Amino acid sequence: MLFFLTLKENHEVSFSPFLEKDKLNSGVISYISAPLPLAIIQIVQERLYRRQPFSFRTPKNKKNILKHQILKILKDYRWDISDLTWKEVSEDSCFHEDRLDPGQDIGNETWKAFNQLVLGRQLSMGDLRGLARELRLNDKEITKLAHYNVEQGRAQWIPSVKLSERGWQCQRCGEKDVEEWPSFYGAAATCRSCESIGASTSLNVLYRDERSLLDGPSEVLFQPYWTFTEAQGLASEQVSEFIKGTSEKMALLWAACGAGKTEVCFPAAAWALKQGKSVLFAAPRQDVINDIVPRLQRDFPNYPIQVLTGTTTSVKFQAGGMVLATTHQVLRFWRSFDVIFMDEMDAFPYHGSRALEWGLKHALRQGGKLLYLTATPSYDGLKATQLGEMMLIRLPARHHRNPLPVPIWATSGNSLDPNGCTSIWEKQIESLRRQGPVLIFVPKISWIDPWIKCFKHRFPGWSVDGSYSSDSGRSIKIKNLQLGQYDIFVSTTILERGITLPGIQVVVLGADHPIFDERALVQMAGRVGRTREIPGGGVLLLSKKMTPAMKTAVQWIEEQNRLALELGLIEPLEKEGKGLEGVVERCN
Amino acid sequence: MKELWRDVTKITRALWYADKQACLFCGKEHGPVCLECQTIYLCPELGRCRGCGKLIPLEKLNCLDCVAGKGPKQLDQVTAWGHYSGGFKEFIQTIKFKAHPRLIRKISRPFSDWAISQIPVVDGIVAVPMHITRLAERGFNQAEVITSALHWELGLPILPGVERLESRSSQVLLSRQERLHNLKGAFVVRQPEYYQGRSVWLVDDVTTTGATLEAVAEVLRESGVQAIYGLCLAAGLEKRLVPLQD
User: Fold this and answer.
1) What is the sign, positive or negative, of the torsion defined by CA atoms of B72, B74, B80, B84?
2) CA separation, residue A290 to residues A274, A287, A306 (Å)
3) When comparing pLDDT for B16 and A297, which is higher?
């Protein structure tokens, strides 16, 4: 989108997307005839500001000097614009009060809806166009509304990608490695890193709404459908202290898999909402968000929850002070949240993505609190807690007071081959099956079909299936799996985290594959024994050799159990996985 | 330090084996355009209508519209690299609407090679101009970027001086007749002296009816251009590939 550079009577250099006199800001006396990218106008503003000599008296012809200076700056670019001149706004129109009145223009309802939907948002022109369609407005009308808010000081237009002394930077995701290209206006740049939610270029703008999602304290009905276990209670208190406190800005909640770490945050979230503080639950994957939604709806009856997920580029505008979003969607917010709960911080695609980390930090309001929730902290995360940069909160035990199942390793011999299923193996899987359905993780998609065939062949009469990320039947199969309709289910890491399957037993085929780091292994092992009814189960790692990742994973799980035992959060250890041990010894 | 390490690995990798490039149209197989996408989108088994560039059966010279005299008349020949559909269409739209003019560089070699094998060598290349308002909005004219790529690969000079006077309503929603009419007087040649007696390629990104090419060709003819060859990245497919039985 382009803007007209305007000059006001008080010598202020400003801009407007419109030329119509009644839409120009009051006090505008002249404007440049050709519309320009906002980035260029900002350069003009900066240069003028730098040149401005300090003086108490305004020279008489300051207006003309300014006009001359601006035109000179613009003409120095040597664009191919023949008509780059000043135009005057006629006298009679600059004083009148007939200004843009959005309420009258488009109806109060739409104006209200628009304002509800853009609170705290950071939207590209593409996003605004999407919003326009939802509100049944045209592009020009929505631009008017947005610009009205900018004029009122509630929002800002900013160039989507900006050039500073240190180079280009995308203003939406913070990426500096952008693609530069020669444009009509000289060098321009396009950001490739956040492209999946719409184009971001230096010639275009973002609408940044600076208002808070909530306008003040309010009544919030919080009715937890559960009672905390001792472990959760302890952690929840610490979380609340952190959220209410003023000292720490970030904290890490390190929980055992299936300990109910999300719920631990609910009381703090309820407190924040009551105080008029906005809350964001963010997670890298859609599955995780979809899993949290019903839990929040159950415990916060009647409270509006915004759910923003999806691979679609549509914005799906909703209102309310509590937002659930995948990390990409977080880039559409700007300093909006007082509290952010970032679930599964280490999971793909968040882990290692600079852009999304930047987005998360910038979605936080000044003085806001950021709590990372994880069962498998990253190296950087743990280090930050050791250095005291981040507070550490532990939740080492599950609600049923049973220890986490510790994985058992069995050597698979030379190689894992779907055609050479050994008999030792079959016994182990059979023994696991007696305890519950068996979930088998494989490192690659290409392993799924051969292994399904192999198991079907070895265990006739058993129901065997499998799935992977781009499988079209994925969601149906996962539903069936949750209903316990399979004896064996083969999967890639898509089922690694965030899902509870009653009675499930886990086998990791090729556990020494580099894709299975300690985090993945802990998560996969964490699928077992999550329910009160069936709190135990077996985890079997099958591989040719033992990798450091496998060792670390076992150490982490054992350490959680030890801490839980020390704090008296679990019952003293009983013998677990009896069915397996005999076989494993033989393997070793 | 991390950045440095990344660069070092990248360079080492590039030294070790040619950095594998994914196909620009499907993103999967070996690029810049994989064999499968070449078959699907570049359609070597189909001919191009000499009148408007549309993809037609190989044995035919013209599409039915051009046979009926409804096509462009000022161009000696029009041709298009591929079929405007699927991944190829997405690729062109990414260039235009997601501001990635530099993607054109990645197809400049195969496209130029193909072009020079299809139409005669000429004195210069002309890009279909864009109106200043649209140009200011988008920041670049994709036809100019394609022209520049052809110039770079083939060494043919770029001929300037054609201008679009008015931005007419987009051609997309108009009928064939309306399209031709819509563009009357939309283009002008500022420096006809460049063009007297020349032969040119007239370059655009996409053509459907050939109306835009025709309108530019008209003013080029008036400026004394001898031969005009229309060249586009993509065109439509003749709908009635299978003759209807009467």
Assistant:
1) negative
2) 24, 5, 12
3) A297
Q: What is the pLDDT of residues B34-75, one digit of tens each?
A: 999 999 999 999 999 999 999 999 888 999 989 998 889 999
Question: Helices A139-151 & A108-118, crossing angle to 10 degrees?
Answer: 70
User: Stretch A493-512: mean pLDDT, rounded?
Assistant: 86
**CA of B101: which chain A residue's CA is closest?**
A181
CA distance B235 to chain A (A): 25
Whether the CB of A470 is below 8 Å from some CB of chain B: the reply is no
H/E run at residue A441: strand A438-441
Are B139 and A184 an interchain contact pair (Cβ–Cβ within 8 Å)?
yes
Is the CB of A319 inside 8 Å of chain B's CB atoms? no
| Chain A CA closest to residue B105 | A181
Taking the CA of residue B97 and the nearest CA in chain A, the distance in Å comes to 8
For the whole model, what pTM was predicted? 0.79
**Residue with the larger pLDDT of the pair A279 and A581:** A279
Chain B residues touching A2 at Cβ < 8 A: 136-137
Report residue B106 as tokens. 């990645």
Determine contact: A370 vs chain B, CB below 8 A: no
Exposure letters A267-288 (e unless 16+ CB within 10 A, then b): bbbbbbbebbbbbbbbbbbebb
Map residue A196 onto helix, strand or coil: helix
Phi, psi for A28 (deg, rounded to 5): -75, 130
Residue in A35, A181, A199 closest to B136 by CB? A35
CATH of A408-587, one of 3.40.190.10, 3.40.1190.10, 3.30.420.40, 3.40.50.300: 3.40.50.300
> Quick one: CATH architecture of A230-395?
3-Layer(aba) Sandwich (3.40)
Do A530 and A321 form a contact (C-beta atoms < 8 A)?
no
The rounded mean pLDDT for chain B is 87
pLDDT (tens digit, 9 = 90+) per residue, A90-114?
655 444 444 556 666 667 788 888 8
> Which segment of A296-305, A411-420, B53-62 scores lowest on mean pLDDT?
A411-420
Of A2, A182, A190, the CB nearest to B136: A2
Domain B48-235 has CATH 2.60.40: no
More confident residue, A351 or A376: A376
Neighbours of A558 (CB within 10 A): 13
Q: At what angle do helices A108-118 and A125-134 cross, to 10 degrees?
A: 140
Q: Which residue in the block uniquely carries the two structure tokens 């058992």?
A: A408
What is the 3-state composition of chain B as percent helix, strand, coil, each rounded to the nearest 5?
A: 40, 20, 40
Q: Which pLDDT band holds residue A479 (cuts at 50, 70, 90)?
A: confident
Q: What is the pLDDT of residue B246?
A: 40
- Interface list for chain B against chain A, based on CB atoms closer than 8 Å: 97-102, 132, 135-140
Q: Is the pLDDT of residue A577 over 70?
A: no
Phi, psi of A558 (to 5 degrees): -65, -35
pLDDT at A584: 41
* Count of all residues that appear for chain A in the document: 588
This model of the complex carries an ipTM of 0.80
Closest-CA residue of chain B to A205: B137
The verdict on A188 touching B (C-beta cutoff 8 Å) is yes
3-state secondary structure of A513: coil
Residue A148 to residue A144: CA distance in whole angstroms: 6
Are residues A184 and B101, on separate chains, in Cβ contact within 8 Å? Answer: no
| Residue pair B140/A183 in contact by the 8 Å Cβ criterion | yes
Per-domain residue ranges of chain B: 48-235
Identify the residue with better confidence: B69 or A497: B69
Query: What is d(CA A217, CA A304) in angstroms, rounded to the nearest whole number?
Result: 15
